[in-house]
Design a protein that fits this description.
With about 375 residues, the chain is mainly beta. It has six helices and 19 strands. β13 and β14 form a beta hairpin. The radius of gyration is 21 Å and the shape is globular. About 0% of the residues have low confidence.
Length: about 375
Amino acid sequence: MTVPSFVVQTCESKFKNTDQVPIRLIAKSELSPFEAVDPFGLRKAILPVFERNPEDGTLIGMGTSFHIDGWGGCLTAEHVLEFARSRFPENGLSGQPIVDLDPSLHRHPVMLLGSGLCYGSAILPEWAIVPIISTNFSKRQCSNPFTELQGKRVFEVAEDIAFLQAHFHPDAVKSQSYPQTLPVEIRGWQPTIGEYVLAFGYPSLKPSRVMPDTEIQDIVEDDLQCAYARITEVYPKGRGRGSTNPVFEVEGNWPPGMSGGPVVNNRGNVVGIVSRSLLLENAELSGRGYATCLPWIRRIYDFFRRIDHSNPGWRKGYGVLNDKGELLGIYPEKHLGVSHVNQDDSLRIAFCSNRIGSNDYVCE
């Protein structure tokens, strides 16, 4: 079996660097996880997810997430965050699309930044712990004649995908640890049987186990891994009545800690999210995994409203332009751009598409 070499870069690194360094396979088995040699800042874009107890600060590893829009918007698998909505009425499965989270009151999801955590100390700086302040996940109304007769609506999770809005401490920007961004491709690609993909994540995370700071640092700093896999089946409408999540099945080994991690194609663009896996006891044999297929998501615009659907690595927002037509800044919400413009009468605001990591833009 010959596994192809992929070149995977963050949007910011791709704009700044012309070098093309492929991911080098260094695993005992061709389809098993191995350390991701990272010359292009992938550790700053792919972040581990933990459950944090606000009372004592303890952390439990849950899975993996990745940054997609340059404004703190990230994706993961919905089941990674299932614990966070359990405190809500109806388990968070109401008709409301967005669930707001209060990190000060409840066990809540956080991501850990992967740069500058050690400095010879076992204490995590506060700015490295990034709380998730809201999440949007895919729901659909259940077909239940009993509740319909009562005039009630009951919802269930439709697809294993969740959008996370993170809140970054100002010191994260000062320390140059603000996350970088991965390009997402949701048009122009469809999974093909026999095609290879590459998944990233933190396989050493052990869900449901409180982890000491020293072990967490080792994982965050040195344990980003990747694993090739070969597509064996496709399920655009899910694998049956009990699983409506649109997935492609792969031959490969994706351990549980990689859940929620990005799956990229041979163009280096994210096309899926690690969803489920079935590992074999013999690590040298290939298991079976499933990736949520992003082009098949039903409510795709709810999760990708900020990125340019036709151009991987570009985002859409409200740009602030000077009288020379130069882009001075771009914002996810119009009122933020207006606030910038109000400081200088010579500036104007325009809705545009921006190449992440650069000042390149195209007005709509």
